[in-house]
Amino acid sequence: MPGFRFRRGLVAILALALIASAASAVWFISLETGKSRALAALDDELHVLARTVEGVIERFRYLPAVIARDRRILDVLASPEPATIERANAYLEAVRTDSGADELYVMKLDGLAVAASNHAEPTSFVGENYQYRPYFTDALARGEGRYYAVGATTGIPGYFLSSVIRDNSRVVGVAIVKVDMRKIEATWTDARSIVAVTDADGVVFLTGHAPWKYRPLQALSEETLFDLARTRKYGSADLAAANPIFSDAGRLPETALVDGEDARRLVLQVGIDPDGWRLLGLASLAPIRANSLLLALLTALAGLLIAGAGLYMRQRRQLTRARLHAHAELERRVVERTAELNRQVEDRRRAEAELRQAQESLIQAAKLAALGRMSAAIVHEVSQPLAAMENTLASTGLLASRGDAAAVADKVRSARDLVRRIQRTVKLLKSFARNEPVRLEPVDVDKAMAVAVELAAARATEQGAQVKLRKSSSPPSVLANTTRLEQVILNLVVNALDAVKERPEGEVELWSEHDGQRVRLFVRDNGIGIPEHLRDRIAEPEPFFTTKLTGEGLGLGLSISRAILDEFGGGMNFETREEGGCTFRIDLPVISENRLREAAE
């Protein structure tokens, strides 16, 4: 037994040593491979970015020579008078707008700017002297110049492209175009790698890493610092006090720490012609180290899994029995929970059915209540044509006794018109009062408003109010229930008539609007309006809340109207007017093929 235990311990130690060796080898190989791939990816990225920088500059390379040939530029250099200056300024401003350059300006041979595209701005170049700038001296010496610097007037950095201006082979001035490169810099802020552009002296002037801006890669010589200060290349930046980014002089390190980071970064650079710039890129080694560590851990884990396979096989039977027991227990709980859920679903179905039945009853009660409130006006609407028909029939008898057949026929037609009027009123009332099941269908909103207006016409006439309906040129349709939509509109019209009851010239107006997506129905009155303290309660209407006197309403109209509109996928709101009165708006979606299919299903 002791020998067996010794052998088992020795095998375990050898297995662990083998696993550790394999994990170490995987970690080293993965780290070196990751470095090579990261350097290759960084090199590709830097070459692409270098071409981008060159492209932004070369896009405007032609522009100084082009503006130097314009007659307006030659005129302002020959005679810088207000008229020539104004024409030159306007021309440069137009070229800036068309080309997308940052700024354009023209300088005389003494370095004084006489015209500029920003002539009307507080930071205008006009009247400033830039003879100390290398792009000016290079243009006079070689015919053209190029220079990156911080603007002495605006404080905004940019790349300056210059070209001499000749009038019949005689040099008369210098044309300059300023290119704003901050947009390129802004895209580097979110880059996965730190990217920076340095000038020929090693000073960083473009970078997405803010702490590096206007810092040298290595310490600068006194001569270089003096030259940068003389040309005011980087404005007020104190390069003499700036700490170098890398401590090694004369060469860049292969890896470096940035701003106290825990992980080192790979360092790579490529050149940008023709200014001697260098594009510097730093890729973090943290993902590579993490990936290498992960692979090593996976290797160790795989070895441990293989080593533990024997133990797993021995315990497999016990685990299987435990899983079977747990599975049986889970099935039992699932069956119990399913039965409980079925009971809850059935209870909810019964509650929803009872709720729908109660809602239908409330809707029908509200409809009958609305008819009851208009009963006197409806009786008048029916009794008036009946009285007129009685007089007509009496006149018909007299005319018949006289043998006047033409007059009798005319009276009979009048009587038939009165009967049709009564039939139309009764038909509308029967349709409105009928308790039909909810069935969505295409509804013409203008026709629905017309029905509501006709039902309320008698009451409006009784109280001396006017109900106006503005019909649209192309009546929209919505997916709704005709009777219920008419009920909602009628309820709003009746409420509006109640609001204008005390007005000597009460008026209710209805109209519809649509924009291809939504249909809006408006009911506006010039009544007394809604008091401020009641607006919140009416905006979210409570059942049985009413502002009318006891017995004049159930307080269900707006609450039920909102519930009906919810069924149609719509809504309702209102607003009061400063001149008095209130406007209610019904909002419904325009009918579509999808909604038609859903309603049919």
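Second entry:
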Amino acid sequence: MTTRATRGPRRRTVVALAVILTVLATFVVRLVDIQVVSADEHVADSLTHLGAGSTIPGQRGSIVDAGGTVLASSVMVYDAQLSPQVIMLLEDKDPDLPWAEASEKIAAVTGQTGDEVRTIVADALALDSESQYAPLKKSLTTEQYIQLRDLKLKYLHFEARETRVYPNGAVAGNILGFLDNTGTAQAGIEEMEESCLAPVDGEESYRTGKDGIVIPGSERLVEAVNGGTVQLTINSDLNWYLQQMIAEEAQDQGAKGGTVTVVEVKTGKIRAAAEWPAMDPNDLDSSTPETRYSQIFHKDFEPGSTFKAITAAAAIEGAGLSPWSTASASSRETFPNGAVINDSFTHPEFNYTLAGALIDSSNVALSKFGTTVSPEVRYDYLQRFGVGEKTLGFPSEVAGLLHPVSEWDNQSLYTTTFGQYFSVTSPQLAGAYQAIANGGEKIDLSLIESCTGADGTVVTPDAPAHEQVVTEQTAAQLTRMLENVAVQGGNADRIQVPGYRVTSKTGTAQVSDGNGGYKEGVYYTSMVGFAPVDDPQYVVVVTLDEPTKVVSSAATASAFQKAMTQVMKTYRVMPSTVPMDELLPKFG
């Protein structure tokens, strides 16, 4: 029997249970709303205040020369700022270090005067009495930053940033390239080797509550990975000398510019790429947009007589000619198809040998020797020696121009035998002579030795391609004829390198007027050769862009002699020990 005494507690229990169930139900409904119905909204809201962190920048890799000399590197610099309002607040509270004294200490580190530092603050306060920002000095070194930091001034702040420096200035500057204001590579090796040089930024992140307090255990750190080190094949000391020399020679000849390219015969490695005007990546404003890129790779030109050796190669292998083969040639002749060909000097009819045609650089004779083979054969030899193909994919590199045979007209049928109606770059010209010097084996040129990652891993480029473009016997005959050019040609006295047997061939190319014709009396001159003849080690190519003092290829003779002499000294190449064969006859 239920009594009144027992009904009271039971009723209270039921009521309490109902209240509890109601509260629980309310929580359940609310949780369902938060976690299911409005889940996306709440997640998005949480991310606005829970996620925080900062990027940890990696450092861009360095560029070094063949011997490890640093040509480009990245350093941290610091931009310092002051808080004028804080300075005034602390001044009112009689700080341990008064602003008059602190400003002198700051100035002693930044290289300013105390008055200059105080003026910066005064000017900022004049514009805004509550100013929190006044720029003090940009690009402070790490040493300066530490000295200022150690002053422990609450109103002095720093912003660290990375900057690119080029310790050797303009040495190989056009090859190195540069970065723009955003740190993006714009040219040269900086652009070409971006995948090696570029760092991978890290990140420091954590979670916070709405009050900004870091949630324990939410911290996450991803370390930055610095860029790798690119090692070049360039010898920076040699490059420095050649830049000074070609700058002097080009200006002496009144030329718009000049270049020197040096290639190692047995490897195809580019050991120097010097040019004037030179670009200093530290000071882009001192150069023009046109001179910020390597003209060695960017400018193509008709090779002129330097490619008569390639015509000789085609005739030797395609028509069975030899250095003693002959052809009769006057200084001006009209060919059966109506083409008119002239030599650069007036002379009667000579019975030229092939060797003599190269020595005197007779266009008429080369036209006759060259057309002993079909245009298709000559086109094939031009391709074999690298015309129309980029050498190594350098940024802004041009491929030159090689017209298909179907576009050769009556005139170009002959002018292609002496280096006209197609164009090359200096590296292409160097590569062609590298093949001759290397017993007919052409090796792709290279500029990169390796990329060494931040972890020490060394990655080297694929081995360069090798191709036998002419036989060893043909290469030997070409070498002998080119040595005779150096000994018997018009520049013989000016290009001698004491102790060494040298080959050479000049080129005097007409310059396009942009309308299908040529500029009157304007030329792009060049000279190429290798040494020593008895054991070829290095190819040297010198060019001058529109010289005005001497407009023929003789303009390059002095620069070629100086360049070849310095290359022999730099690499301590043994002097020639085998005497030259007797001179080849110029006439049959």
